[in-house]
Amino acid sequence: MASNRQTFVHLYRDLMRTAKLFPYTYREYTLRRTRDRFKELKNVTDPSKIHEFEQEARYMLGVVQRQTTLNGMYNRRNLVVENADNAEVNVKKSFENASQL
Amino acid sequence: MSRFSRFMTLSQKALPRTSSCLNRPWTRAGGVASSRLFSSSCSRFSTSPSSQDPSILKSSVSPTAAASTAAAPATATTTMETPTVAKAKAALEAISGTHPIYMDFQATSPLDYRVLDSMLPYLTGVYGNPHSRTHEYGWEAEKAVEKAREEVATVINADPREIIFTSGATESNNTILKGVARFYQNRKKHIISVQTEHKCVLDSLRTLQEEGFDVTYLPVQTNGLISLDDLKKAIRPDTVLVSVMAVNNEIGVIQPLEEIGKICRANKVFFHTDAAQGFGKIPLDVNRMNIDLMSISGHKIYGPKGVGAAFIRRRPRVRLAPLLSGGGQERGLRSGTLAPPLIVGFGTAARLCREEMAYDHEHISRLSKRLINGLLAIPFTSLNGDPKSRFPGCVNISFSYVEGESLLMGLKNIALSSGSACTSASLEPSYVLRAIGQNDEDAHSSIRFGIGRYTTEAEIDYALDNVHKQINFLRNLSPLWDLVQEGVDLSTIEWSSH
């Protein structure tokens, strides 16, 4: 199965969506890092490198899914720089996520 | 009905309906799953037996910080919101937006979630002792430990057999300093170090002095760097070890390791560096820099606390009298069962540091420049330490005519430190700042800002904003500041008039 642009668009979208469930520190870092990483590897043409990147992205998606769930279960504290209006939305989303287990 | 409130009601339906059950700890926040979430915040609320009474609910919520929004949901109970749900919502509102931002990365760093992900298998199913030779449990644990060893070694271009795992940089420093000194004590009795070293190094050397060794503490210049001429002059025929830390934990200066390594190799003296703050952040190559011994800390590189490593060179061999006697693990230099979860976490953290060193360095430099420019724009402030040879993530600034402790108290919403964590309990000004020539007043009014992988621009701007406000507030209160504004030179004032 050749991984085309569509696969990476889906992976990017899934990574960004799942990362929004993290608490502030990890969330901001993951969003920034995925954005920069995908930008870095946007113009890669070597098929083995593309495959490697796809494996890496899938592994990271698994990590982020597991860790957002774990972080949602313990110590949900919002920082002073976080938008207090959005804070409840984020915690609610994490509730929904945890309730699906 | 939103999924959130449906979840709350569902979890309530799971509870038995007798009133005697309402006093149990897990029912107070309304639901089994949510109690896990609120267990940290619930301890702040005094729980009353009649938790059904909304008026008691209101009074328990009002002392908290976010009071204005918290009172509203307590009174506006809808038909499906019972008092326990309302209390949970109030708890939720109370915890949003009150935790301080973290800017103390030199003290410790948050565990990277990728590191935790790699540690979890070893905290659950893979629990064998890595030194068990006879079964699968031991073999799989040992495989993980050896993989971590290789990951740590690759960061500094060392051989994996030269890395031994310890419980942290303090243990590594003790093992190395006391071990090397005691092994060669018959022929060599002199050790050289620097005045700005970490407390554990200085304390180990003091113990060795009591055992009969001579220790020379090299002074530092005002920029925090040692003078290489001083080092050359201090080396004697009976010098066994030179210990200079790579990156200072208080002012962030990077010592000239390559030149020091060259001098030490030429004089056949062992070169030890405490790289707790520098490992994985600046490029360290033990071969290029002629480093013979190195201490590494796990929790400074987004790894777990309680693990560290010591690099002890094999070619040419550095001999060591072990601190811990026992079963001969770790080449006989550090006996004791290794902890696979911590070590695997440490290995993953080291690998992530190596892979992302350039990216993190660029991010931290950018934020550091922004922070320093913002802070030095305040009059009568100065950056401590050399501006060029420094690690950008450690910013130590002195604010004149402001007391450091009161500044820290005012910046309650930012996790900062004035001086290192190990010395924060004492009231003495930092010995590192005194060594770079600061007078006591400026040393007292110095704050260290730590920037790491997870710091965002929003946090930097928030910090700048708060620091500006707090400095103005404190300076306006200070009579010394009024004198300075008038142009009076404080050193010319005669305070006592006899």
Task: Supply database-style keywords.
heterodimer, A: 101 residues, mainly alpha, 4 helices, 0% strand, elongated, B: 498 residues, alpha/beta, Aspartate Aminotransferase, domain 2, Aspartate Aminotransferase, domain 1, seven-stranded mixed beta sheet, 17 helices, 42% helix, globular, metal ion binding (chain B), pyridoxal phosphate binding (chain B)
Could you characterize what this model shows?
The complex is a heterodimer of chains A (101) and B (498). With 101 residues, chain A is mainly alpha-helical. Chain A has one domain (2-99). Chain A is built from 4 helices and no strands. Chain A is elongated, with a radius of gyration of 15 Å. Chain A starts with a helix and ends with a helix. Chain B is of the alpha/beta class. Chain B has 2 domains: 113-353, Aspartate Aminotransferase, domain 2, CATH 3.40.640; 357-492, Aspartate Aminotransferase, domain 1. Chain B has a 7-stranded mixed β-sheet, sandwiched between helices. In chain B, strand 5 (239-243), helix 11 (257-266) and strand 6 form a beta-alpha-beta unit. Chain A binds chain B through residues 22, 25-26, 28-29, 32-33, 36, 60, 63-64, 66-67, 70-84, 87-88, 91-92, 95-96, 98-99, and chain B through 2-4, 7, 33-34, 36-37, 40, 66, 92-93, 95-102, 110, 113-114, 116-117, 359, 413, 453-454, 456, 458-459, 462.
